[in-house]
Amino acid sequence: MKYEQVIGLEVHCELKTKSKMFSSSPVSFAKTPNTMVNEIDFSMPGIMPSVNKKAVEYALRVCHALHTEIDDLICFDRKNYYYSDLPKGFQITQQQRPIGKNGYLDIIVDNQKKRIEIERLHMEEDTAKQTHFDDYTLIDYNRAGIPLIEIVTKPVLRNGKEAAIYLEKLRQIFLYTEVSDAKLEEGSMRCDINLSLRPIGSKQLGVRTEIKNLNSISNVQKAIEYEASRQEKILLSKKEVIQETRRYDEGLRKTVLMRSKGNSVDYKYYSEPNILPIRLSQKWIKSIKNHLNMMPDVREDLYIHKYHLSSIDAKKIVSSKELSDFFNETVLLSQHYQIICNWLLGDVLAYLNKHHLKLNQTLLTPSYLSTLINLIEEEVISSKQAKQVFEIMMKEGKDPRIIIEEKNMKQISNKEELTFIINQILDKNTESLIDYFHGKDRVIGYLVGQIMKETRGQANPKSTNELLIQLLEERKG
Asked: Under 8 Å CB-to-CB from 31, ≥6 apart: which residues?
């Protein structure tokens, strides 16, 4: 019997607000343990939570980007399940009325578009970080209370490849809406997998296994592939898959049991009594949508149809919001769209990788790059010279026109000036002339080299070649 995988993903994303979801404590990373907390985070007697407006705005940004139905009445619930990593012993979340529901995200798998249905998007608070030792546990409450959004898909994914593509696309959404840095390695984006198998053609769901807290997209794909194989072996041996919670062991490259799980856990949800429902203004909800950045899919389509980039180049540009933003600014200053793309994906990325930098950590500006490209196309400098100017520009942050002036790098394109220089070279190389007259065209390369040496590389290569052949033919005649 053949089986198909039925996969749903739950993604938690930490929002990069300045303060926490229900307190004024600062949101931070890698600070001294238990220094970014206050009375609300520790759930001291008499404290009252207060909703972070910016966190709601960030949640709405993602709701719009994922095309969800938005609930304009914000309600919170208590999740009464003992949390050893939350001082109050429960979590404030949204169970009954998520801020967003019934959305979607389109992905491309093997050149085919697939719509991933989003069941819900809700807001909640993060838990503290626990560090376990043999006989004790240390708790850092700096993370407790950081705003989270959780995005839950319907069980529409069918393999690890689809899951990986979806997660990468979702991560792009977080970056383009500017709600999170979405760094899986730092825990600001985390993924849980729900996976079951069923006979191909069956509509009935199989017994589900949950895989918790995956910290990389590649590990999500590996965990799915292993778990699907594990469950298939169990079913083919006529045994039953047990509902349980597992984790992915990167060293062993397999999922391992964390705990068995019953059919459901009674979390005893009820409305959070300390936070009254908040009605959102439709005008505010609409203004958030109107001020969103252009999303990756829209940019990709624009790059292909307006700027005539290839689909591959367009995808590479939008894969980084920073790169895409830079491209958008540069094309306003130069119409050499493909050349701008080539420089960004070539020399610029190579420089960033070599020096382990981000684009915003360099001295490069859209104005400088567009000027450099325009100077190449106007034949003020050659492509070879441009690379030298680029290196100086990146190190010193100077306008390329100033660099060219200071280094006397302006290309010689004047026909009369080039003609005079070429004739001088020909007069000094009579043997090369004889070789050319006898059909030895390879001497052209040698003569071009001599011209470049004489002009210190400033002769226009194209004009030099054309004039050289013309003058050689005249002397031949």
From this structure: 142
Return d(Cα 204, Cα 33) in angstroms, integer: 47
Question: Could you give the C-alpha distances from 84 to 129, 140, 141, 150, 432, in angstroms and in order?
Answer: 10, 12, 11, 20, 87
Tokens of 273: 């009594």
pLDDT digits (tens, 9 = 90+) for 85-129: 888 889 999 999 999 999 999 999 999 999 999 999 999 999 999
Q: Are 289 and 57 in contact (CB under 8 A)?
A: no
Q: Show the tokens assigned to 195.
A: 């996976």
DSSP β-ladder status, 112-125 and 254-260: unpaired
Rounded-to-integer distance, Cα 225 and Cα 217, Å: 13
Query: Token pair for residue 379?
Result: 């034949």
Position 386: which residue type? A
Q: How many Cβ atoms are within 10 Å of 205's Cβ, its own excluded?
A: 11
Cβ-Cβ contacts under 8 Å for 253 (sequence gap 6 or more): 222, 226
Residues 468, 451 contacting (CB under 8 angstroms): yes
Please state the separation of Cα 348 from the chain's center in Å. 17
Strand pairing of 209-214 and 244-249?
Answer: parallel
pLDDT at site 264: 53
pLDDT at 460 over 90: no
Does 356 score more than 70 pLDDT? yes
Residue 175's SS3 state is helix
Token couple for 43: 């759930």
What digits encode the pLDDT tens for the residues 271-321? Answer: 999 999 999 999 999 999 999 999 999 999 999 999 999 999 999 999 999
Among residues 122, 96, 196, the alpha carbon closest in space to that of 156 is found at 196
**What gap in Å lies between CA 452 and CA 411, rounded to an integer?**
11
CA distance readout (Å), 310 to 205, 301, 307: 41, 10, 9
263: left (phi over 0), alpha (psi -120 to 50) or beta: alpha
Residue with tokens 């039953």: 240
* Mean pLDDT for all residues in the chain: 92
CB-based contact 27:17 (threshold 8 Å):
yes
For 466, what's the count of Cα atoms within 13 Å in the CB-facing half-sphere?
Answer: 7
CB 168 within 8 A of CB 9: no
3-state secondary structure 363-419: CCCHHHHHHHHHHHHCCCCCHHHHHHHHHHHHHHCCCHHHHHHHCCCCCECCHHHHH
